[in-house]
């Protein structure tokens, strides 16, 4: 692979760095290096959400001569990513436009998010980035509702003993002391070492069959990310690090302690470590080798400084910019309002795609290759979430004492999550949590009011045939913020969105299901149909972009012709090897350094 080694500094007035290979790695792509590169002539991409758009972008970058066609069923692109400026009809505010997010609202930083940074750099979005620093109130103040009050969680840094005391008396930490006995509890029996189990069962088993920590703390966090049920979601897929520590050492805490000794050479050098899979390690290596990033992007979105970020016009801006960029390319065609209804392999090993295209010659088309980003319920069922955006021109709408202080000037924080253990009387609407958007995503509006998003439903609505309508959603959201935050005034804006089947659930047995689905698809389409998207690569926007990036990388050098079970799912066919390596803060530092650090890594279980 060619190294870019600062080549781009010749093209750009900005100081740029090529992120060079500084880490030793085994290269699963090497088998292709001796082959002649071969390019597909035509590629279809199913779905115009962030996975489909970023797949098209990264593939077009690597295959500039290939004709790429994106099929999107709806009129607009972006899938669940949707931001909108809504006019505030209040004379005194002169028609101000408030930015509302109906789906995702923030992106996290981290070493595995390098492909998102590459997009931001390529699309010239850096100046529109709006960050929330690690020091900001939104990063420091996060709450859990328990049992009927908001309890602030500790943030990194020196311990705040008063806060810890409040936390203790709230009862939220019930069951935590059983953690002390965790190293003395038996691990999984030898014949069940690879057996998956639910998150609730895993956590409770490590804590002596005590479900309180799972119900109070873990369920709240999982509500915030998956809107899912910890009694159904897979521990192996969602908590792979601690699941593997137990697998290798019989105890999570003992595993951590043994690994600290194993990587003493690193810890002595002040490098903090974490458990890493071989796949993630290779991925980080490849990304560092492959990317050509403006230093300013790395600095602005550094994991040390920035916790989360969005863009001036919300996350939609990433979609809009991607769409503009793709429309500018002569080899990319975007078909909206065109639903893919069928696809199969013909006798020439090409994919015949049938769609709802209005033109008869567009309805049936043939492609050398296709990438599907469409939902796949056979690997992961999905839950339905309702988001209700509320805006109050009064910046002090939340009663401050509910947040544990009286200082009116103090920021409110990120928001709160509601664990499954909260009594039905406190949460009859079955809300998952409330985001304080006015703090969580700052500097987006010209006026400062109280901007909230109430998240409802998720696994609580599993099996429902009908969902609340807009009026009911509004009423439910208003009663939640009245009960929990003391807001009695009417909102100046309210927007209700129902997202049916929006968040895939990686339930117990997920990885096995993906592998068998991967084999089925590889056999059926002889490797000509690859898959990516939130049903496979993780449920966050960064995961979707990384999945698209790695898929495009795997397709290079004839990889797209390979009919083994790669098809965008290489992660699931990984060796399963885990070890202790530098954490993302340490790795990020290597992106800026001039020396090539050497790492002695300790394999798990040795
Ligand atoms: C309420 C909510 C809040 C979230 N918050 C965050 C957050 O804060 N941070 C974060 O990182 N992530 C968040 N997420 C997750 C994130 O939004 C998703 O992971 C991501 O948008 C998924 O993108 P995708 O392209 O894989 O799928 P989708 O967005 O579902 O895109 C799939 C596309 O395929 C189209 N399609 C479907 N069927 C067909 C067909 N037959 N033919 C053609 N087209 C078809 C759909 O119309 C859609 O446009 C949130 C999600 C939700 C719902």
From TrEMBL:
GO biological process: protoporphyrinogen IX biosynthetic process
Gene Ontology cellular-component terms listed: mitochondrial inner membrane
Co-factor(s): FAD
Keyword annotations from UniProtKB, A to Z: FAD, Flavoprotein, Heme biosynthesis, Oxidoreductase, Porphyrin biosynthesis
Principal location: mitochondrion
Catalytic activity: protoporphyrinogen IX + 3 O2 = protoporphyrin IX + 3 H2O2
GO molecular function, one term: oxygen-dependent protoporphyrinogen oxidase activity
Location(s) in or outside the cell: Mitochondrion inner membrane
The keyword Signal belongs to this UniProt entry's keyword annotation: no
Pathway(s) the chain acts in: Porphyrin-containing compound metabolism; protoporphyrin-IX biosynthesis; protoporphyrin-IX from protoporphyrinogen-IX: step 1/1
Enzyme class: oxidoreductase
Stored SUPFAM superfamilies: FAD-linked reductases, C-terminal domain, FAD/NAD(P)-binding domain
Annotated ranges, domain Amine oxidase: 50-554
The EC number(s) this enzyme carries: 1.3.3.4
Function: Catalyzes the 6-electron oxidation of protoporphyrinogen-IX to form protoporphyrin-IX.
Similarity field: Belongs to the protoporphyrinogen/coproporphyrinogen oxidase family. Protoporphyrinogen oxidase subfamily.
Name of the molecule in the record: Protoporphyrinogen oxidase
């Amino acid at each position: 692979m060619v190294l870019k080694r600062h080549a781009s500094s010749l093209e750009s007035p900005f100081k740029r760095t090529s992120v060079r290979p500084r880490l030793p790695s085994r290269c699963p792509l090497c088998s292709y290096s001796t082959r002649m590169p071969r390019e597909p002539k035509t590629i279809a991409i199913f779905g115009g959400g962030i996975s489909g758009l970023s797949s098209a972008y990264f593939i077009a970058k690597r295959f500039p001569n290939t004709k790429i066609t994106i099929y999107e069923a709806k009129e607009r692109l972006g899938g669940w990513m949707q931001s909108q400026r809504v006019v505030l009809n209040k004379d005194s505010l002169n028609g101000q436009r408030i930015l509302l997010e109906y789906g995702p609202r923030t992106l996290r930083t981290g070493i595995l998010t390098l492909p998102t940074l590459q997009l931001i750099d390529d699309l010239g979005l850096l100046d529109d980035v709006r960050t929330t620093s690690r020091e900001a109130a939104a990063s420091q103040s996060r709450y859990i509702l328990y049992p009927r009050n908001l309890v602030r969680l500790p943030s990194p840094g020196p311990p705040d003993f008063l806060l810890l005391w409040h936390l203790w008396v709230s009862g939220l930490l019930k069951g935590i002391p059983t953690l002390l006995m965790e190293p003395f509890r038996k691990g999984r029996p030898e014949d069940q070492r690879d057996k998956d189990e639910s998150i609730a069962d895993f956590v409770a088993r490590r804590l002596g069959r005590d479900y309180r920590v799972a119900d109070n703390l873990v369920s709240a966090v999982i509500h915030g990310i998956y809107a899912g049920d910890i009694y159904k979601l897979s521990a192996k897929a969602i908590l792979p690090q601690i699941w593997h520590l137990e697998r290798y050492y019989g105890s999570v805490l003992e595993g951590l302690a043994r690994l600290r000794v194993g990587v003493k050479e690193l810890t002595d050098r002040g490098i903090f470590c974490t458990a890493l899979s071989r796949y993630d390690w290779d991925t980080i290596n490849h990304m560092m080798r492959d990317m050509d990033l403006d230093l300013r992007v790395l600095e602005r979105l550094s994991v040390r400084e920035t916790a989360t970020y969005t863009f001036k016009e919300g996350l939609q801006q990433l979609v809009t910019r991607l769409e503009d960029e793709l429309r500018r390319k002569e080899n990319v065609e975007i078909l909206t309002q065109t639903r893919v209804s069928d696809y199969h392999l013909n006798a020439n090993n090409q994919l015949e795609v049938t769609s709802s295209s209005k033109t008869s010659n567009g309805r049936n088309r043939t492609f050398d290759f296709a990438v599907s980003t469409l939902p796949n319920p056979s690997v992961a069922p999905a839950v339905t979430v309702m988001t209700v955006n509320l805006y109050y021109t009064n910046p002090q709408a939340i009663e401050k004492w509910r947040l544990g202080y009286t200082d009116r000037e103090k920021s409110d924080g990120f928001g709160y999550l509601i664990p499954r253990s909260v009594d039905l009387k406190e949460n009859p609407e079955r809300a998952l949590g409330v985001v304080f958007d006015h703090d969580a995503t700052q500097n987006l509006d010209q006026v400062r009011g109280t901007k909230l998003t109430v998240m409802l439903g998720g696994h609580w609505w599993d099996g429902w045939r009908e969902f609340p309508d807009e009026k009911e959603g509004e009423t439910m959201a208003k009663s939640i913020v009245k009960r929990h935050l003391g807001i009695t005034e009417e909102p100046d804006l309210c927007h209700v969105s129902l997202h049916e089947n929006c968040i895939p659930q990686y339930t117990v047995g997920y990885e096995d299901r993906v592998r068998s689905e991967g084999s089925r698809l590889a056999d059926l389409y002889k490797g000509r149909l690859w898959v990516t998207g939130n049903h496979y690569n993780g449920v966050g926007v960064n995961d979707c972009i990384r999945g698209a990036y790695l898929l495009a990388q795997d397709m290079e050098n004839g990889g797209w012709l390979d009919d083994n079970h790669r098809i965008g799912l290489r992660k699931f066919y990984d060796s399963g090897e885990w070890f202790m390596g530098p954490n993302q803060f340490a790795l990020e530092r290597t992106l800026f350094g001039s020396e090539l650090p050497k790492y002695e890594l300790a394999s798990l279980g040795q």
